[in-house]
Amino acid sequence: MNAPIDAIDWDADAARFGRIELDGGITVVPETPLIGASIHGVDLREPLEAGRLAALTQAFLRYKVLMFRSEGAWRLDVDAHTRLCRELSEHWDIRPDTPQKEQNHSSGLTVHPFLPWQRGYSHVWPTSSVTGGGKQYALRASEDVENFEPFAAEKRSVRKKPLRASSNVAPRKLKPHRPGQFGAAAIAGDVVKNGANGFHFDDGFFDQPPSAVVLNSIVLPPVGGDTIFADMGAAFRGLPDEVQAWTSELTQTMDWRHAFPIWEQQAARLAEQGDDILARHVETLIDAYPPSRQPLIRRHPATGEFSIYANQGFTRAVEDVEPEESDRILGFLYRMAERPEYQVRLRWNDVGDVCLYDNRITNHYAVSDYGDVGPRALHHIALLGEPTETPAGEVVTWR
Ligand SMILES: [Fe+2]
């Protein structure tokens, strides 16, 4: 059933047919009644013209997470991935303007300040460089990255360390530094150190966090490595009225050091060994990316929907309340992301599958269960974000 995009009753079609047919052969298959849909009939290697961009934008705003199914017929190279992200960003006409613009914006896309970049593509983060399920995977042979200097510096300092020739004890093997700890070790401690396998949205420490992210699958394990998304708009609507009203007036601080504590730890450890290159690098990062101020409940710039905007990865505290009260509020809000009723668990079926998620109103969790099954590598591009607004429509000032 094809209808003008504005006339589509998504929920009625979903209830009746289990799918929504759009013009141009696009099929939207909801993965749950609430959040997440698979998209069939779109070959993302081809540029998207305005009609398709408009239709896919409507599907995106309704389902918040779209998984474009390649069915093994196509895969995106880095140029096509980049072009897709620019098309979306330009179609949505996002024009951010923040003090951080010089550092983290490049050609209309977000540049991550301290994750490795695909060489020549500073906006592409190859996720395999720091994640890998139960164990961490080194960069793949074909992966050539920039912005990896702090890690290279540590390797140099390890090499310089003299061996203790007179000791029977084997020299301690220092592992190459990776900015985080994932998988079984993190789960065993019931803590998330670096966020991928904990509910979060991306880059909350930016003044204007990314509006959306496009993940392109490069290498997939035969099974495992699903991604879970939580609808934080539905989670907000599930709160008691008085809690909605009360939290809507609160502000939070987000800090990358909360999500990546290992940077400062490693910098301190290296400094003790007389190598302060990482410490100096961390100082420049703290300077360029001080904690951001964000509303605790956010108004979506396109739909007006309110959502829980606390983020287990980056939120450090609720402002203007006692620390214990802040912990209590955040603990309560974080648990909302963990309710299955608000979630969709998306499987990556085929290399080439591409996932577009709304970073303004969802949290996600990279399931870290594939360590012994095989590697998983996704290319991550974040689209620029808008100023964040409170439910009352006020823009929260940055500092
Ligand atoms: Fe993430």
What does this protein look like?
This protein has twelve helices and 20 strands. The chain is an alpha+beta fold. An eight-stranded mixed β-sheet has the order 1-2-3-4-18-10-20-8. A three-stranded antiparallel β-sheet has the order 17-11-19. A three-stranded antiparallel β-sheet has the order 13-12-16. α10 packs antiparallel against α11. The site of fe (ii) ion has 4 residues, from loops.
> How many strands in all?
20
**Distinct ligands:** fe (ii) ion
What's the domain count?
A: 1
Provide the residue-averaged pLDDT: 83
Broad structural category: alpha+beta
Distance between the termini: 50 Å
Shape: globular
Strands in their spatial order, largest beta sheet? 1-2-3-4-18-10-20-8
Helix fraction? 25-40%
User: What's the number of helices?
Assistant: 12
Label the CATH architecture: 4-Layer Sandwich
List the helices and strands and how they pair.
Blueprint: H1 10-17, E1 20-22, E2 26-30, E3 37-40, H2 50-63, E4 65-68, H3 78-92, H4 101-104, E5 105-106, E6 109-110, E7 117-118, E8 125-126, E9 145-146, H5 149-160, H6 184-188, E10 212-219, E11 227-231, H7 232-237, H8 241-247, E12 251-254, H9 256-259, H10 261-272, H11 277-288, E13 292-295, E14 297-299, E15 306-308, E16 315-318, H12 323-337, E17 343-346, E18 354-358, E19 362-366, E20 377-382
Parallel strand pairs: 3-4
Antiparallel strand pairs: 1-2, 2-3, 4-18, 5-6, 7-9, 8-20, 10-18, 10-20, 11-17, 11-19, 12-13, 12-16, 14-15
Helix pairs in contact: 10-11
The protein binds fe (ii) ion (FE2).
Fe (ii) ion binds at residues 196, 200, 202, 364.
